[in-house]
Specification:
- With 456 residues, this protein is an alpha/beta fold.
- 38% of the residues lie in helices and 13% in strands.
- It has 12 helices and 14 strands.
- Strands 1-2-5-8-9-10-11-14 form an 8-stranded parallel barrel, surrounded by 4 helices. A two-stranded antiparallel ribbon has the order 3-4.
- Helix 10 links the parallel strand 10 and strand 11.
- The longest helix has 23 residues.
- The model has no long low-confidence stretch (mean pLDDT 92).
Length: 456
């Protein structure tokens, strides 16, 4: 802590070049809003942050598996009971599938309660009517409607309030017993079109629930682990003025960002000498870095040493996002670069961003087959390189939207218009998310030689 504090403060990032920040016209209002946010209570507690780091240290050692998922960008309008319950339900069910099939504990991190901002390739866009407006950068910056595109500082305060409301209900669901495995949320398989796949899924789920009932009968399920789960929150730490406002010094420990348990740096803001790396290197939270095709080996070597100089297990997660066709080419080089530093990391696969495509009519989508292919190839490369895949990072929703194609739902480009609701990137729907969980569990079982609880 002392070595970092010698040349770092929560505001030292302001002396560095910064990217992907909104241009606020009203700087006075911005200062007022940030002062209000900094005076409000933290959204999470630092001891929860420390607990997550210990959990991620297990994933770093191959003793558990990270499941991180949620919306591409949360919307204020989705801060409601049904939407929050749906996201909680799918993360819980996916983790149960992975645990049951692979016999590997799961660390659950939701892209919830703060994942509002979104980096964009261009700061402006031209509307069909010829007007040039600011690009939509997430509800904490501006509105999706063309008439609400001017960045509004007051939305930062709204982001804080919606984050608190979301996390409050998430905690309420856990305390109220929604996560009790004896009454796990009902499983919905009616959208699985292929009969054999539906039978396979139904068999696995029934065996899993049968096992829980057996433990109940012999009274072996009385521990608190059967009645509650741990789930942590995360978001991309994009808007550094907001992140600074929620950064606090904890006596004898250091600075914590208390807007979330886990934050990550996006592929567009990971410049070695940039503001985001400067800010992230000083906080005690476990953090992530997105690693895409443009990440050089030399940059990666420098980044992991800057962000985890003490070589602390659980501190740093590398979230790879190459696209299915480039995993074999790029991942071994990145693994080699990290090995040369001796810095321990959690290797996590984001199979979404590198597999985004557009249909003939310009609709952005992703094919589930490509995403699963990237996950499988990533597992295989890690095994060949003597490392292990420690987690997956997914953009998903617990609802049956029609934004990604493929999977057991049989969605095609023709179906995309039925329930295409995202304001940003396409998300896996409920059934497609279960597809991923079953495939992850199979690969974990194969890699670890555990035998698992799945028979196919």
């Amino acid at each position: 802590v002392e070595s970092v504090m010698a040349d770092w403060t929560p505001s030292s990032w302001q002396q560095k070049e910064i990217f992907q920040q909104p241009e606020y016209k009203d700087q006075d209002t911005l200062k007022e809003v940030l002062t209000k946010v900094s005076a409000l209570p933290p959204i999470v507690h630092y001891q929860e942050v420390d607990a997550l780091k210990k959990e991620l240290a297990k994933a770093c050692r191959g003793e558990s598996f990270l499941l991180q998922g949620g919306d591409c960008a949360e919307r204020f309008q989705d801060c409601n009971k049904d939407a929050l319950e749906a996201k909680f339900k799918i993360l819980l069910q996916m983790s149960m599938i992975i645990i049951w099939g692979s016999q590997v504990p799961v660390v659950r991190i939701a892209r919830m309660a703060g994942q509002f901002a979104k980096p964009r390739s261009s700061s402006t866009e031209v509307l069909p009517d010829g007007r040039t407006v600011c690009s939509y950068k997430g509800d904490n910056v501006n509105g999706f409607s063309p008439d609400e595109r001017e960045p509004d500082p007051n939305r930062l305060l709204l982001a804080y309030l919606h984050s608190v409301a979301s996390l409050n209900y998430l905690r309420g669901m856990i305390a109220g017993g929604v996560a009790d495995l004896h009454s796990a949320p009902s499983w919905s398989l009616e959208h699985v079109l292929e009969e054999e796949t539906r039978k396979e899924y139904t068999h696995i789920i029934s065996k899993m629930m049968e096992g829980l009932r057996f433990l109940h009968v012999i009274e072996a399920d009385t521990s608190s682990s059967f009645k509650s789960v741990s789930i942590y929150t995360s978001h991309e730490g994009l808007l550094l003025n907001y992140e600074e406002a929620l950064t606090e010094l904890v006596a004898n420990k250091g600075y914590y960002n208390l807007s979330a348990h886990f934050l990550w740096i996006g592929d567009r803001t990971r410049q070695i000498d940039g503001a985001h790396i400067e800010y992230f290197r000083g906080i005690r939270n476990p953090i992530g870095v997105k690693c895409g095709p443009s990440m050089t080996e030399s940059d990666l070597e420098r980044l992991v040493q800057i962000l985890n100089p003490d070589k602390e297990e659980g501190k740093l997660t590398l979230i790879t996002r190459y696209g299915a066709g480039r995993v074999a080419e790029l991942l071994p080089k990145h693994i080699g670069a990290v090995k040369r530093t001796g810095v321990p990391v959690v290797w996590c696969c984001d199979p979404c961003h590198g597999n985004t495509i557009s249909t003939e009519n310009g609709t952005k989508t992703r094919h589930l087959d490509s995403m699963i292919e990237e996950i499988v190839k990533t597992f295989d490369v890690h095994r060949q390189c003597g490392t292990h895949l420690g987690g997956v990072h997914l953009e998903l929703t617990g609802e049956n939207v029609t934004e990604c194609i493929g999977g057991s739902t049989g969605l095609t480009p023709v179906n995309l218009g039925e329930r295409y609701e995202t304001f940003c990137d396409p998300r896996l729907n409920y059934t497609q998310s279960l597809d991923v969980a079953f495939q992850v569990s199979k690969k974990l079982t194969e890699d670890r030689g555990t035998g698992g609880n799945f028979t196919f």
